[in-house]
Design a protein that fits this description.
Layout (H helix, E strand, L loop, with lengths): L5 H9 L13 E3 L1 H7 L3 E6 L10 H15 L4 E7 L3 H12 L3 E8 L9 H8 L3 E6 L8 H17 L4 E3 L15 H20 L5 E6 L3 H13 L4 E6 L4 H19 L11 E3 L12 H14 L8 H13 L8 E6 L10 H8 L4
Helix pairs in contact: 1-7, 2-10, 3-4, 3-7, 4-5, 7-8, 8-9, 10-11
The structure holds pyridoxal-5'-phosphate.
């Protein structure tokens, strides 16, 4: 059931200016081999790993809106933060460079990855981002309030140097810093509309969209899109870091802010935010056997690579849920590939360890 039409929703989104950063739509492809091998519902893949900016990923959609906001606010330095091997930080740095803005990244060492130039950190280096590395023990996605002091310090430093900073919150999801609207989530309302149009053209109904959820913007945007355009479509977020009780509240808040920002006449409730937290296992960014196997499985079946922190976990979850009979056989599932593949490389030791044959 649709409360609104795709045209109406797109019109609301057009009210937000955006920089031209990526070619859209990204492909929506049926995974014939994978579907057959798993013996459950039809599984499609939405290729947001193919956004074409700095190896691709969901953050590029968000950044079309966020970089435009920074430009409108006359910023010449963008400040953000996340984990050492963050996809968000890399994508932000690349998008900023394209529009003549200098990236300043505060990267937290949250898990046992070497501080060597590999994966995203190497790409940050090539982009000549101003990188500040800090220690963090929490092993969680760091929220605005966790980093307020450091951000203020860096913001003042930039201002004293005669520049104009734009503080973009981690993941580009929640409002905060210089971002007064949930711009990242708005880009995923658009992604939902785009995917729905493609599914209609290809002649199938989307039962569920399953994806890795980290800072919540992607899930919030998709959930709002589903609420407005296709109430029967379930959005399944596979958490990679936080438990579902606390995380669900955050996603709901972002979703409500998104509805308000877009001026939609719909209401979203706790039940609309479906999160699985049982696949976090050892914690954020910690690779395990199931994830390594899922990364290999998709590469063998479809020749597509996943990442070890987000999409690998989401695929491990999808495989497990199909095995447990969570979906109906005649269901159609869209697996959203959110990118992140450069993180394969700094995880090479563990990956090879988990994948090599045991003697
Ligand atoms: C950031 C990220 C996610 C999570 O998206 P959020 O909007 O932060 O929840 C998923 N997959 C990859 C590869 C990411 O980089």
């Amino acid at each position: 059931m649709a409360v609104m039409s795709i045209t109406e929703v797109k019109k609301k989104i057009q009210g937000f200016p955006r920089a031209d950063l990526i070619p859209l739509p990204t492909p929506l492809q049926k995974m014939e081999n994978l579907s057959r091998a798993l013996g459950g519902p039809d599984v499609y893949i939405k290729r947001d790993d193919l956004t074409g900016l700095a190896f691709g990923g969901n953050k590029s959609r968000k950044l079309e809106f966020i970089i435009q906001d920074a430009l409108d606010k006359k910023a010449d330095v963008v400040i953000t933060w996340a984990a050492l091997q963050s996809n968000w930080c890399l994508q932000t740095a690349a998008a900023a460079r394209k529009f003549g803005i200098k990236p300043l990244l505060i990267l937290f060492k949250m898990y046992e990855l070497p501080e060597e130039y590999d994966g995203n950190l190497l790409l940050d280096y090539i982009l000549d981002a101003d990188v500040r590395i800090r220690e963090d023990e929490a092993g969680k996605v760091l929220k605005m309030e966790d980093v307020a002091e450091i951000i203020e310090e860096v913001e003042n430093e930039v201002k004293e140097g005669g520049n104009t900073p734009y503080v973009a919150p981690i993941g580009g999801s929640m409002k905060g810093g210089s971002m007064d609207k949930p711009l990242g989530a708005i880009s995923y309302v658009n992604a939902f509309a785009e995917t729905l149009e493609q599914a209609q053209e290809q002649g199938f109904k989307i039962g569920s969209i399953l994806h890795a959820t980290g800072s919540g913007g992607t899930q919030a945007g998709l959930a709002v899109g589903a609420k407005a355009l296709s109430e029967d479509t379930r959005i399944l977020g596979i958490s990679v870091s936080d438990d579902k009780a606390s995380f669900g509240k955050e996603v709901l808040t972002i979703a409500q802010d998104t509805i308000e920002a877009l001026g939609l006449n719909i209401e979203i409730k706790e039940d609309d935010i479906i999160i699985f937290d049982e696949y976090i296992k050892e914690g954020y960014g910690v690779l395990n056997k199931e994830v390594s196997d899922a990364v290999r499985f998709l590469s063998l079946k479809e020749g597509i690579f996943l990442d070890p922190v987000y999409t690998g976990k989401a695929m491990a979850a999808l495989m497990d849920l199909i095995k447990k009979g969570y979906f109906k056989r005649d269901d159609s599932i869209v697996f959203l590939h959110t990118g992140g593949t450069p993180a394969l490389f700094p995880n090479k030791r563990k990956l090879v360890d988990f994948l090599k044959p045991k003697d």
